[in-house]
Amino acid sequence: MNKEKLKKIASNFKIDGEIIDIKRCDSGHINKTYAVKYKTNDGEKKYILQYVNTNVFPNLPELMTNIKNVTQYMITKAKEKGESTDRLTITLIDTIDENSYNIYNKNWRMEKFIDNTKTYLNTEDMNILQEAGRAAGRFQKNLDGFPAEELYEIIPKFHYTPNRVEQLRDALSDESNLKERKERFEMAKDVIKFVIDEKRLNKTNIITEKLENKEIPLRVTHNDTKLSNILFDKDTDKAVCLIDLDTVMPGALAYDFGEGLRTGITTAKEDEQDLSKIKVDINRFESYTKGFLSEIKDIITEEELKTLPLRSMDDDL
Q1: Are 133 and 260 in contact (CB under 8 A)?
Q2: Rounded distance, CA 109 to CA 244, Å?
Q3: φ and ψ at 107, to 5 degrees?
Q4: Nearest to residue 292, comparing CAs of 251, 264, 317?
């Protein structure tokens, strides 16, 4: 999309200033993101303009309601404690028509650019991984007490493992599917064999059952705590906050811990095609876990703690 069209779209948000530059941001696989620079009376300021992919997120008003509610809760809680809210979380910009969802023309939204920050796709630095764990843990701590049951389920059964298991079983029992994707199934046969072992599958519903039986609390979960969704201070490499709150939903604390480990403990970036580069490093696990637990130690329950190192197999597998 050309800059003039983007300027017209951006002009529908409440910002007192003149647009002097717009650049496409290459990060992200789902939404289209642009950095918009304004000249204001207080100097140059940046904002993030984003086109949300409603094929992936079909109910954008519900999604935006979730984001507004959790960010406002964090801000209010921080103010009550006398803490700074400067870079606590994202800040949505109102539309000129002041609609309650901060959405322009069905797909567009805008938020403040958080200054002097950067992101990582991967890192060898254990201190950064520990900070990543802190960011995920701090998100949990900041939202402790929020009524998670009031959140909309943006992607139904997103981390509901029994559903994923059922989908896998359906795919493996579909003869036409197996024939059509014969080469893919052949390549993945060892992984499939590993996953469908009954001793392993019988344990995939432990966390969901604990939630259903109220053995662990229902919490606000980010659900996409990968390294690239964390802003770090450019000068200190300290974690600033989690961004990309589109998948904020009710869930289990272990979801955010596990999702962070998914990219944090491997030696390659998330979309690496060369599988030989992907290895799991126990030192990464320890660093991330140390950071995560340092933030949630005062809110985590004993039963939740047991779900974090949950074994999915018996010792002889």
Answers
A1: yes
A2: 12
A3: -125, -15
A4: 264
Here the tokens at position 211 are 């939630």
Q: Which residue has the tokens 């809110």?
A: 299
Q: How many Å apart are CA 317 and CA 313, to the nearest integer?
A: 6
Helix (H, G, I), strand (E, B) or coil at 227: helix
In this structure, what token pair is assigned to residue 221?
């979960």
Give dist(CA 190, CA 7) in Å, integer. Answer: 51
Which conformational region is residue 77 in: left (phi greater than 0), alpha (psi within -120 to 50 degrees), or beta?
A: alpha
* Alpha helices (H) in the chain, listed in sequence order: 3-10, 60-80, 126-142, 161-173, 175-180, 182-187, 189-195, 198-201, 206-212, 253-264, 282-296, 302-307
Burial 287-313 (b: 16+ CB within 10 A, else e): bbbebbbebbeebbeeebeebbeeeee
68 φ, ψ (degrees, to nearest 5): -60, -40
The pTM score is 0.91
Under 8 Å between Cβ of 208 and 160: yes
Kindly state which CATH superfamily the domain 126-155+207-307 is placed in.
Aminoglycoside phosphotransferase (APH), C-terminal lobe (3.90.1200.10)
Residue range 257-313, pLDDT digits in tens: 999 998 888 888 877 888 888 888 899 999 999 999 999 999 999 999 999 986 543
* CB contact at 8 A, 16 and 47: no
CA 172/CA 202 separation, integer angstroms: 18
Place of tokens 């002009």: 11
Pick the CATH number of 22-113 from 1.10.287, 3.30.310, 3.10.620, 3.30.200: 3.30.200
Residues in the chain: 317
Where in the chain are the domains? 22-113, 126-155+207-307
pLDDT per residue over 104-143, tens digit each? Answer: 999 999 999 999 999 998 899 999 999 999 999 999 999 9
